[in-house]
Design brief:
The protein is globular and about 75 Å long. The protein has four domains: 98 residues, no CATH class; 65 residues, Alpha-Beta Plaits (2-Layer Sandwich), CATH 3.30.70; 171 residues, 3-Layer(aba) Sandwich (Rossmann fold); 197 residues, Rossmann fold (3-Layer(aba) Sandwich), CATH 3.40.50.300. The N terminus and C terminus are likely disordered. The chain is α/β, with parallel strands linked by helices.
Length: 570
């Protein structure tokens, strides 16, 4: 039986649509086979119970091409599993845009940085493009030009923007050698075995040390062990490493993990933050200190960390939060291996193409629900609880501008009653309460008599509170948005979100991630969002939920004024 007959004989599991989306029937006997076949060139958009939706984009096609897949392979796969004939426009898009990857290559020849094209006519177009022309050192022949030595990143960004992403084969510096391995037994005496998906992620990124590997992004859910992927990559590359992360708490967690799970000594690992600034073979710095400057007119004084050591690897933790100034310096670091780690490639500023160009293509991803089914992250229930405004607040809301409307809705005092009731229901659980507005958090913390961590809380005090929460000394902890990222609280199983950043899908994903680490007792994770109904907050809440709905999580909607227990499926 031919491949085209496979799908038609049994009614294929795929419905390929002209808008570049693909529906995959979960109950189909060929579901798993088809899912694995389309994974290299698609992006999972939605994963509810019965029908998963995948998208084909220019970036996903370029990601596939960078891994060695051809347009013929992609189309043959779609035809093999599709229930219907492929739309003509989709065939054209796949062929056109996959063909573009590899038409331009960045190479190193005789010590020079060279841009090479297949078609001389394309080189003429590139040479005349205003974003690329300033980086051209001179002509070599009708298919090659020499680029200025430090233009690699800027040229790659420009080429991606005009629709001809470069295959970067210019290689990497070795960096200062560093002997490091991942332990089989941690310093705490616990056995340490990398999970299969963690091994696969590291292998795909490293690519045997060839120029085909060495740059790219690994996408895994919060709680899935992205840090271990970073540590195993360090052990593969074995060179001085700079790790950039979101805040001091996250930096110190990285350092604890490095010392516990690798063979490195304390004198080989350093912290570079607002509190302490030292350099070692492995240095963990924060985005805040890297981008700090007294005035906007001044240079960034800490950018020199990139040149203070002969780094062979840079790890960008939470790469979706990479600040714009770090993109600039990353453009100059293209000869250094670069690993991005994230739970979601969604960027609120829309700069996904810059991540692709400067950090590298997406190399590996596992859907959240897959790891939940395998038991690697906790099973979670998501509930939105809607409360009304007080009568005395309705007129103020009606007359306010958009920003004030959001503040009034988010800070609605009626939410406090819900939080109290939830704490009664979860009195035997470890509860994290998180919000956006400091006045609201201060007031609620005073009422509940629970500790609160905000941006002004000293790092030493934060670490004590996080430790007491992990140990169970504190069962309820409140945090501002500083708790969105990289907080190691594995036994937190209830999160109550009382306010957030407008419609940020990124923030919603990160906050759910705070309670997704598997629980020692196997308990469920509960994620509650309290919003003010019939307000702008309710509208933004629908957008916030989009990412988690795409990942297969369903929300129950609860009207507090009726009954907390009366749920309506969304």
């Amino acid at each position: 039986m031919t491949s085209n007959a496979i799908g038609s004989a049994v009614g294929g599991p795929l419905i390929v649509q002209g808008d570049m989306t693909i529906l995959l029937e979960v109950a189909h006997p060929m579901y798993a086979e088809a899912r694995d076949k389309i994974a290299p060139f698609t992006e999972l958009l939605k994963s509810p119970e019965h029908m998963h939706t995948y998208g084909i984009s220019h970036l996903s096609l370029w990601n596939a091409a960078s891994s060695g897949h051809s347009a013929k392979e992609v189309l043959d796969t779609l035809r093999a599993y599709s229930r219907f004939d492929l739309p003509h426009n989709l065939v054209y898009e796949v062929e056109t845009f996959m063909e573009r990857y590899g038409q331009v290559r960045v190479l190193r020849e005789d010590g020079r940085l060279v841009l090479e094209v297949i078609d001389p006519a394309l080189l003429v177009e590139i040479k005349n493009h205003r974003q690329i022309a300033p980086f051209i050192e001179g002509d070599i022949d009708n298919r090659r030009i020499a680029l200025f030595p430090h233009s690699r990143g800027m040229v790659k960004m420009a080429l991606t923007n005009i629709g001809f992403p470069a295959e970067d084969l210019a290689g990497y510096v070795t960096g200062t050698p560093l002997e490091v391995d991942v332990r089989s037994i941690t310093l705490e005496g616990k056995p340490l075995n990398l999970r299969e998906y963690q091994k696969d992620a590291g292998q795909v990124f490293h690519a045997g040390g060839t120029d085909k590997g060495g740059s790219g992004v690994i996408v895994l859910p919060c709680g899935a062990g992205k840090t271990l992927v970073g540590l195993s990559t360090m052990a593969r590359v074995k060179c001085n490493t700079l790790i950039l992360t979101t805040n001091v708490t996250a930096a110190r967690q990285w350092i604890r993990e490095i010392l516990d799970k690798t063979t490195l000594r304390p004198d080989q690992v350093a912290e570079y933050t607002g509190d302490t600034k030292t350099i070692a073979p492995v240095t963990v710095a924060t985005y805040q200190i890297i981008t700090y400057r007294k005035r906007q007119s001044e240079d960034f004084p800490h950018f020199d960390i990139f040149s203070k050591n002969n780094w062979g690897l840079i790890i960008y933790d939470e790469v979706h939060l990479l600040p714009a100034p770090v993109f600039r310096i990353s453009a100059d670091m293209q000869a250094t291996r670069r690993l991005g780690l994230t739970a979601t490639l969604i960027r609120e500023d829309g700069r996904q193409k810059d991540v692709f160009s400067l950090i590298g293509p997406k190399k590996f991803e596992v859907p959240w629900k897959v790891l939940e089914q395998q038991g690697w992250i906790a099973t979670a229930t998501c509930t939105e609880i809607r409360v009304g405004l007080r009568p005395e607040d309705k007129m103020a809301y009606a007359m306010a501008d958009l920003r004030k409307k959001m503040a009034l809705a988010a800070s609605n005092p009626e939410k406090f009653k819900v939080v109290k009731e939830l704490l009664v229901q979860h009195k035997r659980d470890r509860v994290l309460i998180i919000g956006q507005y400091l006045e609201q958090l201060d007031a609620l913390a005073a009422i509940l008599k629970v500790p609160l961590i905000t941006g002004s809380t000293p790092n030493s005090e934060r670490e004590v509170l996080y430790k007491e929460f992990r140990d169970g000394t504190i069962e309820t902890l409140m945090v501002s948005k500083v708790g969105n990222f990289a907080v190691d609280i594995p036994d937190a199983n209830v999160l109550i979100q009382i306010s957030g950043t407008f419609g940020s899908r990124q923030e919603e994903a990160q906050r759910l991630g705070r309670v997704l680490r598997p629980k020692s007792n196997g308990s469920l994770a509960h994620f509650y969002t309290i919003i003010t109904k019939d307000t702008k907050e309710q509208e933004f809440g629908m957008n916030r939920q989009l990412f988690l709905t795409e990942q297969g999580y369903s929300y129950a909607i609860v009207d507090w004024n009726r009954s907390l227990l009366e749920e309506k499926p969304k």
